[in-house]
Amino acid sequence: MDINSLFKAPAIPSGRNKRKLPAAPSLEMLKKFREEEEGESSILAQEPQESEELDGDSEGRFFGDGLTDEQRNIFEFVDAGDELEAETFDVNGVKKMVLKLEKAINKNQEMRMKFPDSPEKFLDSEAELDEEIKHFAVISEAPEMYTNLIELNAVASILSLLSHENTDIAISAVELLNALTEEDDDGTNEEAEESMKLLVQALVSPTFLSLLGKHRQLTISLQVDNQGLDILIQNLNRLDESLNEDRNGVFQTLAVVENLISIEPEIAEIIVSTTPVLSWLLNRINVKSMDSNKQYCSEILAILFQDSRVNRLKANELDGIDKMLRVLNSYKRKDPKDADEIEFMENVFDALSSCLQEPESKPIFLECEGNELMLIMLKEKVMSRMRALKVLNYATATAAGANNCKRFVDILGLKTLFSVFMKKGVKKLKKAYKNFSDKEEEEHVMCIIVSLLRYLPDGVDRLRLFNKFNENDFEKVDRLVELFEAYIAKAKLANEEIERSKQELLAEEEEITSEDETQFYLKRLDAGLFTLQMTAISIGYLCKQDEVLKKRVVMLLSRKSYSLQVVKDTLQDYLTNLGDGDSENPEDPALFERKRISELMQYLE
């Protein structure tokens, strides 16, 4: 059995794929959780304290061996692992482990009640309890046995430890929960997967959630009746991140939250609606200094907002848009310092973009001067420029973004936008930033232009937009047609590859399924189909607006033996994939879009 697997600490994950400490952590990796600079955070529960050897009056801080907290945790897990080979993961083995843990809990509780004012007298029982908690983590190697843990009421026993007066014990319990809920990268069998889900359901039962958000004094009690998630979140408020052990406790708590969501995605909305975790996360990312926990908070935020309208709307209630913009304001004229901070910045951009998918969020973005901030980033040509385009894409999209379109023009954003469209300064950006993507940039720019064409009302602002295509000898029209032709070529290659795949399936006498068709469509999207469609829509608007612009487009297309018919065919393909919409709902956006596109196609004759 791999002992090292027991102390794989989850680091800041990318997406939902966690990065983990190596099997033998280096000193550099261990230093990830060393003490930060004094005064790093206004959100810390206590002022930074100097490290010193603790005696019996330390109210439960019972370690004093000269090791760092991280080194001590590793050695303790290794010591516990010495007995692993002798451990049997059957029902009797699990019962034995649960019994030993129960005895340690009861003994410690008894000693604390008997000698409440004499910490030195319950110190040994506390150390023994901590050892049993760490040893209990070995059952994470056999998740199929979790059902037995639930039947033996071990979950309640573990959860009772979250409210232990000694935060070291509470943190050890959090570490145990992290180990139990962490999914195996190699995959688990069906029985183990089902047991894991049952454990998560036990952790997030309605009785767990009944007291969430009530910041009461935490005291140990074996009668917690599965209110563990409540205490898990509240523990964030009593941990002092100026201390290594507590800082790691925050990290472990965030890992448990991520694990629960990964196993049961619907838990994301339960956690946000019933706990103060979202408020805590939004405040935590605004702490000035950068550290691993701040980065992890940004990742959890991105996960919480990724697929949940409910969570995005909750963010609006908590001034989430404003708080995320305040964080991003730090990057309007300077780049993040290192890879960790780059990931932090990108997580916040992703979280903001997710929120802007909701119509209710777009006016808030407008009021918080989000357009102005994104425009500054575009002008400065810093790393944040690449993400600012994405945010503006979401902010201006749909009819709900019409006011953002108008504001963008009012603050003279057209000049900067079309500078990006014309690829000015791209060589410098590519040289400076390895992650620069022409494909992403072109997609976001085209989406913004299409939104402006759709939603700017007739008047001065709309005329200013079309004047951009007339100026400098129609250079923007030339660039638009150039983009269209480039993406037509990519689409042709993708279609040829798809046709070969279809022929291979038919040759093997296999039916082309709906799943196959979905994969083929995704391949077309990957080849830039959406950007192609946006350029076609833009060409349609130019042809509708001005006969001179239409003649320019026709002339440019003819150079490569194209005509307006290829643009029309592209729009027809767009309509086909758009669907019919809900004919019974006159407000259905798909119906409006079909009407708009059908009208544009009339000008492509």
Average pLDDT, rounded to a whole number, is 83
Computed over alpha carbons, the radius of gyration is 29 Å
Number of domains: 3
Query: What is the global morphology?
Result: elongated
How many strands, what sense, and barrel or not for the largest sheet?
none
Order of helices and strands: HHHHHHHHHHHHHHHHHHHHHHHHHHHHHH
Structural class: mainly alpha
For the record, give the distance between the C-alpha atoms at the N and C termini, rounded to a whole number: 71 Å
Q: Which CATH architecture of the largest domain?
A: Alpha Horseshoe
CATH top level label of the largest domain: Mainly Alpha
Q: Give me the number of helical elements.
A: 30
Specify the CATH homologous superfamily of the largest domain.
Answer: Leucine-rich Repeat Variant
For the secondary structure, the number of strands is 0
Proportion of residues in β-strands:
under 5%
Which percent bin holds the helix content? 55-70%
Q: Within the CATH hierarchy, at the fold level, what is the topology of the largest domain? A: Leucine-rich Repeat Variant
In the predicted model, the low-confidence regions spanning at least 5 consecutive residues are 1-64, 81-86, 206-226
